Amino acid sequence: MTDLTGRRALITGGARGLGLQTATTLAARGAAVVLADIDADAGADAAASVPGAHFVHLDVTDDASWEAATAAAVDALGGLDTVVNNAGIEISDLFVDLDADNARRILDVNVLGTALGIKHAFRAMRPGGAASVGGVIVNVASVAANIAFPGIAIYSATKSAVVRLTKVAAAESGRLGYGVRVNAICPGLVPNAMGAQLAGDMERLELFPSAGEAVTAVVGLTPSGRLATEEDIANGVAFLVSDTAAFVNGHSLSVDGAMGM
Description:
Layout: E1 8-12, H1 17-28, E2 32-37, H2 40-48, E3 54-57, H3 63-77, E4 82-85, H4 100-125, E5 135-140, H5 153-176, E6 180-187, H6 193-204, H7 211-220, H8 230-241, E7 252-255
Parallel strand pairs: 1-2, 1-4, 2-3, 4-5, 5-6, 6-7
Helix pairs in contact: 1-8, 3-4, 4-5, 6-7
C-alpha cells in the first residue's frame, strides 16, 4: 500500500531522530533519499547508515543554502518529487521569562525554514522546474499545533503556522498548476532526544515535579495510552508521500494517539 519505488526524496533534519527514521522508512519502501542537515559530520554518518542514501549540507533558514541543496539533491537523485520539511527546534520558556533571541531562532527554523522548503520544492517540481514532474511535500508540524501545553508557547505557535503554511501552499499549487500535493503531519510526543529535552524542561520550569511526571501527564492526555514512536510518525509520512494518498491534499494528519482531538 505504501510502495515508494521510484520516489526521489529530500528529508531535512535528516542527521538524527525523526528525520533519520523517515529517511530509513522511505528507503525501505523503495525511495531514493537525500538527507539534508546543518550538521555535516552527523549528516554524512546518518546517510551512510541508509542504503543508497546521499547527504547534502543545508541551513534551512538560508535561501541560498536551500537553492544549493535542492540542486544537489536533483543531481544526486536524477530528479526530485518528494520533500519532507522535518527540521525543527524547540526551546521551552515561560511567558514571564520569554527570551526574544530564542523566540526568533525557533521562528527562523520552524516557520521560515519550512516556508523556504516549500518555495524550493515548488521551484524544482513545477512545470519547467529542475525536476518538472510534480510531487509531494510533507511538513512536520506537531500535536502542539492543536493543544495548549504550558512552557512551549513559541514552539506551539510555529507548528500552528506550519499547518497554515501547508494549506496555503496546497491552494497555490492547485491554482497555479504545479502538480504538487502539500500536507502536514502532527506527531505526538516521541521519547527521543527532543522529547527527553522537553520533559526535562518541564521540570526545570517547575511546571511538573519531575520529567517523569511530565511524561506521565502526556500519556494521561493520550487516549491510546502511550507515547508515539519515530516509526509511527515515519509510517504516517510514508502514507502521505505514497500514491495511496493521491487525493489527500492540504491536510494535517494527526499521529498522536488522539491527544490533540
